[in-house]
Amino acid sequence: MVIILVLSVLGLNAQDHAGKPVPTYVTGDECLFCHRVKVVDTWQQNPHARTIWPNEKGEEFIGSKLARPLRKAGYGKFDILAADKKTWDKEKFANRCAGCHATAVDPETKAFATTALDCYACHGVADPNHTKDATLMRFSSKYPKNAREIVSVCGSCHLRGGKSHSSGLPYPNNFVPGDDLFHDFEVDLAQADNEKLNAGDRHVFANVRDVLKNGSSSTCLSCHAIHTDSSAKHKRVLTSAICQNCHNAEGPKSAVKKYEVHSALCEY
Predict the structure, then answer these.
(1) Measured between alpha carbons, how far is 207 from 209 in angstroms, rounded to an integer?
(2) Which secondary structure element, helix H or strand E, spans residue 7, and what is its range?
(3) Which of 16, 32, 90, 210 could form a disulfide with 216 if both were Cys (CB 3.0 to 4.6 A apart)?
(4) What distance in Å separates the CA atoms of residue 23 and residue 166, rounded to the nearest whole number?
């Protein structure tokens, strides 16, 4: 059963950018002026900063262990090397990958503004007054913690298998943090119980379902640090039921269940 959650359930601000032009936003280069110490010096340790990355020759790739070469094809466009490693696909990156591996994808042209993830991808449009009042900046240390808002932002990329109702694409249609992700992005939360799904994806579905349907306050940010090494905080978390998606009920936590990570969308 596909679950579409409406704005009133999420309790988010009344904004919706699905299908609309990308809003004007402050880029990461501008953010660096004030955040160059506590953010910039650790950001490159996190996979979110390397959803698209260059090698020493300046060639660009998508992914990590199973990296796929990319080839620039104009502003905000990439061709991606096909799975046969012989031909270049001119449509696949825009139709499958751009929404989660690049920033600010134009709903009409599918062209992106920035390779990899810019600050805007998680923090949204910055209020110019946030320098005086940190509560105005989404996910700052003083910003009110809203579990539904957090899983909405994280889920915009990590709920693999979802689909935009308006565009038909496997990534949200111009989702901006603060929007109701599930107003347009259709997700089958029953996948949390699908034992054929790899443990990592099931973990995301289970956490989102717990927040949206059961009122849980535990979110991705409870265990994962986004600006630094994502797994450092995760390793210190206390044992809970959700841990058994990946870990055994008994024995050392270092002994995780064996599973194969696979995604038909991502082709690995």
Answers:
(1) 5
(2) helix 7-10
(3) 210
(4) 18
